[in-house]
Model the fold of this input.
Amino acid sequence: MPIQTIDEVISELSEVISRSRKDNDRAGYFAALYRRVTVAVKEGIARGEFEDGARMARLDVTFANRYLGALASYRKSEPASRCWVTALEATRYARPIVLQHLLLGINAHINLDLGIAAAEVAPGAAFLSLKNDFDRINQILANLVDRVEDQVCSLSPALGLLDRVGGRTDEAVINFSVRRARDAAWAFATQLSHCPAAARAELIAAQDLKTACLAKEIATPRPQVSLALLWIRVRESWNVPHNMDVLAAR
Done:
């Protein structure tokens, strides 16, 4: 049964983290970050930071149900979005660094799930009225970036090596990816809101394929970057439960 409230979302994410700690499952990395975002949205609603707090709560729950549903389907070997399958398959392997796991989750959840959730919560003529609150989430995420940067660097002390092979620093990767992905999510949601019902499945499938292709690039980047990532991984914390605890800390 789908979750109905933000408190239930937070509780379910806590369960995902707890199970992941027990099973040494790297899927808990994104869940830890996502719980922090959800708590921040809940606090923003309580402070009246959104134009329509009740609608934002519905968006948050609809959004979260897509991630939790994909995770449950994957764990039961049932069909799931391609981009989520790529992200969750990566958690089975030790080579990807913590940052890659976070970006894989962010990619799937924002580039695919967020646009679908937005179009569902504010259909038709109501869609444009969502824009200001949609943009407000960007600020909430930006406020988390500095803290997340410090935490990821504490787990991956050699992460700065990406600069020297033509990549970007961890803060730039997270901040740019989230901002660009949210812009793309709004564009995708706009398409969905104007799309005939009969064509929605095809549009969503095309977006899923595009997002899955980006996920593959994140999981298996070009050789020069892959070598740098391997060097970073060797020096990164291998303690999965500890890494989750660090990412979950506020």
Confidence is low (pLDDT under 50) at residues 167-176. The two ends are 30 Å apart (CA to CA). The chain is about 75% helix and 0% strand.
